[in-house]
């Protein structure tokens, strides 16, 4: 390389090219053409002749985001897409995966159509690569219900009360009756469902809505608490205040049919219907409140069906005799609901979707105010908690004694008997109505302590005293009960009531027993370690793991065998497995069997609290034991084997008739004597599971595991591990937040790469390509290093198999187990691995003829 022989851009390593793309593409904004087309720079003066002979055009300038400010770039980097195919594939992938795309909803349906048309325009391949979309939501379209029962002309306003479009009839005294005492409706764009249908093609996209508004913001976040006709004015009047002093309450019963949740609930329905876990919908909100109103407003938002992920409060010092003000910044999402049954009813009809929420008015969503036939002091349905809070405040201002009632917190089911805190706690006497009969048989309900202190992700937990028990304890516990617990409960087949009971029992144990506290902390931090580059999480894992081990030794020395000990061992096994302490596997297995035997047998496990644990602890014991047993059985042997010596492990011909129902790749291996009868049975069992699993959705699908002897050769063990990885990716385990602990793609990729006899046999090249593809491409791409993935895939073909693109790889994979739901991830992985490689046709070795029917 020199001045006379310069290298081209495509001669650079793929890593350098990707860095160039990342620098070139900034944060991009999806805006209407009118906002993009104007040149921010002053145009140069032209002569009259130039202007006369020139057609006036407008140039598009890409918006980039730098330090939170939108700035204009003098030239767009997008023409780079037109260079050649390879540059387009690489740059487009970076462009859509590493950028946040911004849009704005200010003109209602028109702006929703802009987003939809843009998603259609970029095509299905680029939609799959989308990762982040931010939408500035600031539009509300309202209309009155006229005396004939039909909606009048709509009125478009911002959430801050600014008119964007007002019909002409509103500007003059009209003859038709537009009395505020009649109902109002909000127009919902049917394009929203079309947008979510396209977003369902994305692999992992986060849509963040930022509704910046004031008085009408509560109409979106808390519609059941918004009095649309307060002050006898039109809906966006400044007289409509939403403070607890302005709200009136009565002793009327609360009619739940009138409690509506408009746009957020519809979006949650569409997210579940079209994307499931591949789409995340977040809301980023800023509020300006008086300090005394902050806690009340937070409670109101939570009890309107929101999960608060982050709550930041900034208090500004007030002038004299003026209440202090808070600037509240909230990140939240709509609480997950059991919408699977509703989501399955895909009609493409907004009218039918609204009926799913039991709303009767066709094509519109009404909210009711006080009418002429109703007492004006009786407001419409309101969350009971807000009424109690406001009533308590009024009594407090009048000097009366405040009646303490239970809060219905986000985790009202967490009851911690015997847990005491320094402050006076609120007692929760509520019961789940589905447990009423059981509660009556057991006697008085247990009082639950609900401590109003935010920790971790913003939930309320009694973790005040836990912080001193080790590094990152509070964060780990809050993450477990917020994120991991629902997935664990789903894996155990628990419903809503069972999940609450299970979580209540675990939190109670964590508050009483350090063994459970440190075990849950270490287990959770294992799933978070990949997100931390500082090493603090790794050190915290070892701290908590050592505490668990010490506590187990103390309990065993006292010969005290109970459910707490078994739960502690069930937590330690996956922790050690994740840390790579495979030599402890046989010890853990033997210890678990002995402890269960001393407990009184498997049926006695969980008997200390049959409702909270019982079957759940027994199932956890089986899962963790099978995990350790599987890794013990698949441990790679280093001693000489027939396969390492170039001998066929099983006599020829072998199992030719038995393997006829297997994929062609496995039939060839069996015919050549590589597979034993036991391994053929394992492969057939996986094939049966794969067929049966098609009947259920991946998010509700149980994974597959097998039991085997320790006499399998290294190739057969690698095949079994590969099948387990594929089963995890095709089941609910693939989307589990703790998938890193069970899936371990990086560790397994390293083990596979070190099995020399598998790599040295030319007859196994295609099988190795399939195993490398499955193991190195988990459903969650964040749990494996891209470099490790690329290295393994390249190793499987370099100097071994001629492949220049995906079309050369796909036929190889289809000879084994190939599932179309994994195809896109496999394509991406191989495109990254093949990018930048020299022409394989000139240096690959034709080895396909070694395998029959190649």
Automatic annotation (TrEMBL):
Residues 36-56, 427-449 are annotated as: Disordered. Residues 38-55, 427-443 have a biased composition (Basic and acidic residues). This is F-box domain-containing protein. It comes from Aspergillus hiratsukae.
